[in-house]
Amino acid sequence: MRLILLGPPGSGKGTQASLLSEKYDIPSISTGDILRQSIEAQEELGLKAKKYMDEGALVPDELVIAMVKSRLIKPDCERGFILDGFPRTVAQAEALDSLLNSLGYSLRAVINIDLKDEVVIERLSGRRMCKRCNRIYHVVYLPPKTTGICDDCGETLYQRDDDKPEAIKKRLQVYMVQTTPLIHYYQEKGKLISINGDREVKVIHEDIVKRLV
Ligand code: AP5
Question: pTM of the prediction?
Answer without folding.
Answer: 0.94
